[in-house]
Write a structure and sequence with these properties.
By secondary structure, the chain is of the alpha/beta class. Helix 2 links the parallel strand 1 and strand 2. The strands form 2 sheets. The chain has a 6-stranded mixed beta sheet. It is built from 6 helices and 10 strands; from the N terminus they run αβαββββαβαββααββ. The N and C termini lie far apart (68 Å).
Length: 292
Amino acid sequence: MRYINLQKTFWLITVVLVLLLSQTPVQGATNCLMASGAPDRDCDGFSDAEEASPIAGVQTDPAKADLFVILAPTSTGTSLLQDNPLGTLIASAAPIGLYVHQIAGPISGIRNVTATQKAIKVQESLYVGAYLGVSPQGNPDMVDDTGASVVYTQKIKSTVAGLCTTSKGVALVCNDADGSTIGQQAVINKYIKHTVAHEASHQLNLKYTCDSTIGCHYTTITSGSQSPTIMDQSVFYVKGTKGVAWYIGTKYTAADANLQLRIRQTSRERGQFGKRWSAWDRLCCIECRTKK
């Protein structure tokens, strides 16, 4: 008799679960609302109504998340940004459902694209110090208007050039480990594009889970058998007697793909994570080294 009761209970639970699951939105479906209550299907901070018309001259899709980027070359010398500097960000973001648009914008001050959402800004600097890049951590509409990711292109160039040269000044073979990038200048360009994508991604709140040791990053790979990612803490390389092999990440991870809707937080999420945002907005990502 006890066995029959348990069996009936099991089938009752199964029926309830089926009914509940049948009412659950399919994966990828969203139900975001703007502060005004206007629908925002893709949770990118632009309402469906706004996306019915071009935004900043771009016709967007209300079912696809959009990100606007202001890229500011250096104003103090000759820019080292070459070969489509946003290329890695654009190519890697599309597979996780994020569509990137470059727009002109102010060198400083307000970055508003609409009344409710901002572009992110990436600034080039030729300063040579300890860092290859720095960035605020947050979301486009939550980073302060003066906040910007900074990519130190001259530092990247000198870092690659230094490692691809012997102590006696003899140039070494300098290639990307996957064979797609050949030569020192090509490696420099790829490293710059990687760093642009890496620092910009911190303004998308990637990597979402942070810790006190490596910040908002993934642990740097330690061997050529591993695959580097955009949000690794640093770039890994292997230097031999005849050359240097670089492992420069150009892709996001599967975990990053789940965070595409974190571009703009709902009021509920702001309340839930408010303390965390205020703390991390004051911190910087520091992409300061390569790792041998």
